[in-house]
UniProtKB/TrEMBL annotation:
Superkingdom of origin: Bacteria
Segments traversing the membrane: 38-63
Sequence ranges assigned to domain Cell envelope-related transcriptional attenuator in this UniProt record: 115-270
Entries under InterPro entries matching the protein: LytR/CpsA/Psr_C, LytR/CpsA/Psr_CW_biosynth, LytR_CpsA_psr
LytR/CpsA/Psr regulator C-terminal domain location: 373-487
This protein's name: LCP family protein
Family to which this protein belongs: Belongs to the LytR/CpsA/Psr (LCP) family.
Length: 513
């Protein structure tokens, strides 16, 4: 394995330009023709949709029979892993194995293992009311941590193309790489191959696509006229594999087209009558369970648990986004993550811990209290310099009116407090703040703490918040936010920042591209 210089590492991390990177060892093994990628349609069918339909079946014994056909393998990305935030994160990969029924896609590659040119992370928020598909371009040059190869050898850490993690170290190395890059814990994985993909599309009766121009691509075996078509089987596989016949020929363009295809699949399954058609639903379930390999932790019980939590999720809540990238400094044919945009995006996803909030016990039902009605005093009890202002900025962006920032005695736990004289209204105003904090909901506490220091808060926000545009200043109780050492962070409104909004793919995206 080639050694990676300090300059090369700094190029990927965006600190300075590096000289051209020597080709990785795994590239020298590619004497066979370049393999076309497989879209991870199987994950949408099994990683999300299958879980959606389990509950509607109502036949536990029948599903026990179906799920016995799912192949499960051990999954252990290592001991040093990100914390669990309550979100559901599923790693989704498409395998280009040529073994078994996949032999016709490259007989010379039978027995040579499997690769993936499709890597996605399905992120479902803790309250299970929205899902984000995050695509990682296969040409991304990233720092891959030390892994164990498929043969049991140690693969040293180094800067390599992101899909080499799966090629050389399998699914566990892929998960370990993504966790190190995003600090997002991966709960499960789903893998699907060529044959499984076709069977799933056939089972849902094909998917409507729209071509802006005629396509004749011998590599993907796709030959279609311009306009709308319903594709299934080989045509569907060819559509998601073609690269140079559509768009600008880049992998980024193909990823966007694949995401559009996936949203059309979700619309067909959730809105197209599949769930109310017993025969078609049966065909779909049989095809889906036979098409995938999953981790051992994705048991029947775990699937049922997830199904109950996501049964209200539909195509409208499914959004696709590609990690922001820029050309790789050492090779313009590859890309690297755009910083700080990628880092900020991963942080927003990680903090997207929206929860179902319930009223404080004993509080009667009342009109919803808007963030702009709540005045806050933010006190730092962590000992970390500047923490109060940092948190105050985050809360101000959410529309809260921060009046003061300061310090309090060191406290292990974060708390939300209101004055005893505000016992009637305080809990309601405190709940509005609790709803915007990550992780488990915190119950507001009666009784304020004494500030060691306190000063007026000056907002650094560039955009006006709802509170700033309000014509009437809030008059309700002032709520204290005590930042303890377990500070969970402020939940972001959207995991996708405004700078990436134009890159989002969802059920409303025009498929004619």
């Amino acid at each position: 394995m080639n050694r990676v210089t300090e300059q090369q590492e700094e190029a990927v991390l965006g600190r300075r330009v590096a000289p051209p990177l020597p080709p990785p060892d795994h590239k020298r093994r590619r004497s066979e023709p370049r393999r076309n990628p497989l879209t991870p349609l199987g994950w949408v069918s099994v990683g999300l949709t299958l879980l959606l339909v389990i509950v509607s079946l109502g036949g536990y014994g029948y599903y026990r029979y179906l799920e016995s056909g799912i192949v499960r393998v051990p999954f252990n990305p290592g001991s040093n892993r990100p914390p669990d935030t309550g979100a559901l994160n599923v790693l989704l990969v498409g395998s280009d194995s040529r073994d078994g029924d996949n032999k016709k896609y490259g007989a010379t590659s039978v027995g040579l293992g499997e690769r993936t040119d499709t890597i996605m992370l399905l992120h479902i928020a803790p309250n299970r009311d929205n899902a984000t598909m995050i695509s990682f371009p296969r040409d991304s040059m990233v720092l891959i941590p030390q892994c164990t190869t498929r043969t049991g050898a140690v693969l040293p850490a180094g800067i390599r193309q992101i899909n080499s993690a799966f090629n050389d170290g399998g699914i566990e190395c892929t998960a370990k790489t993504l966790e190190s890059l995003t600090n997002i814990k991966i709960n499960h994985f789903v893998k699907v191959d060529f044959t499984g993909f076709k069977a799933i599309v056939d089972a849902v009766g094909g998917i409507k696509i729209c071509l802006p121009k005629p396509v004749n691509d011998p590599k993907s075996k796709l030959v279609l006229t311009a306009g709308e078509h319903v594709v299934s089987g080989e045509q569907a596989l060819g559509y998601v594999r073609t690269r140079y016949a559509l768009g600008d020929g880049s992998d980024l363009g193909r990823i966007e087209r694949q995401q559009v295809f996936l949203t059309q699949v979700m619309k067909k399954i959730t809105d197209g009558g599949l769930l109310t058609n017993p025969l078609q639903l049966n065909d779909f379930l049989k095809a889906a369970t036979a098409a995938v390999t999953v981790d051992e932790g994705l048991t029947l019980e775990r699937m049922l648990e997830i199904a109950n939590s996501v049964k209200g999720l539909t195509a409208k809540e499914l959004k696709g986004i590609t990690v922001p990238t820029v050309p790789y400094t050492a090779d313009k044919n590859r890309v690297q993550f755009a910083e700080p945009a990628a880092r900020d995006f991963f942080e927003r996803v990680r903090l997207d811990t929206d929860i179902n909030t319930a009223p404080t016990p004993g509080k009667t039902a009342a009109a919803k209290i808007e963030n702009s009605q709540v005045r806050l005093q933010v006190l730092n009890a962590t000992g970390e310099v500047g923490k109060a202002v940092q948190v105050a900025d985050d809360l101000a962006e959410q529309g809260f009116v921060v009046t003061q920032v300061g310090n309090a005695a060191i406290a292990p736990a974060t708390s939300i407090r209101y004055a005893k004289k505000d016992a009637a209204d305080g809990p309601g105003y405190g709940d509005a703040v609790a709803a915007r904090l990550s992780k488990d909901k915190r119950t507001p506490v009666e009784g304020k703490v004494k500030a060691l220091t306190s000063q007026p808060y000056e907002s650094k926000a560039t955009a006006k918040t709802p509170a700033q545009t309000s014509t009437q200043a809030p008059t309700g109780p002032i709520v204290q936010v005590i930042i303890g050492k377990d500070w969970p962070g402020v939940r972001v409104v959207s995991a996708i920042p405004d700078s990436l909004k134009d890159k989002v793919v969802d059920s409303t995206t025009n498929p004619c591209k």
